[in-house]
Amino acid sequence: MRKYLVVYEKTKTGYSAYAPDLPGVIATGKTKSIVEKNIFDALQFHIEGLKESHLSIPKSSAESEMFVFTLL
Q1: At a CB cut-off of 8 Å and minimum separation 6, what does 56 contact?
Q2: Which of the listed residues 2, 9, 50, 52 has the most CB atoms within 10 Å of its CB?
Q3: What per-residue confidence (pLDDT) applies to 25?
Q4: How many CB atoms within 10 Å of residue 44?
Q5: How far, in Å, CA of 33 to CA of 24, rounded?
Q6: CA distance 33 to 37
Q7: What is the pTM of this model?
Q8: Domain of 40, in residue numbers
Q9: What domain count does the chain have?
């Protein structure tokens, strides 16, 4: 089992998502639930392609953290 960080961003027309540890794996959708499904499918497709091509599957190294600031 592997875990990969996925970053979701709100856009003017919906949402986008990408996985920093897997360059080129991106997805878009009108709603967050649609983009969640699309990025999951994109991740699976990409990893299956790496396996079929006998290429190594990158290990996860990206991290994230939320900082909370009080605006004065």
Answers
A1: 50
A2: 50
A3: 97
A4: 11
A5: 20
A6: 6
A7: 0.87
A8: 1-72
A9: 1
How far is Cα 36 from Cα 16, in angstroms, rounded to an integer? 9
- pLDDT confidence of 1, banded at 50, 70, 90? confident
Measure the CA angle with vertex 9, ends 17 and 12; round to 5°: 115
Angle in degrees, CA 18, 2, 24, rounded to 5: 25
The first and second tokens of residue 70, run together, are: 């009080």
CATH code for the domain of 4? 3.30.160.250
Q: Tell me if 22 sits within 8 A of 58, measured CB to CB.
A: yes
User: Residue 27: how many CB atoms within 10 A of its CB?
Assistant: 21
| Segment 11-63, tens digit of pLDDT | 999 999 999 999 999 999 999 999 999 999 999 999 999 999 999 999 999 99
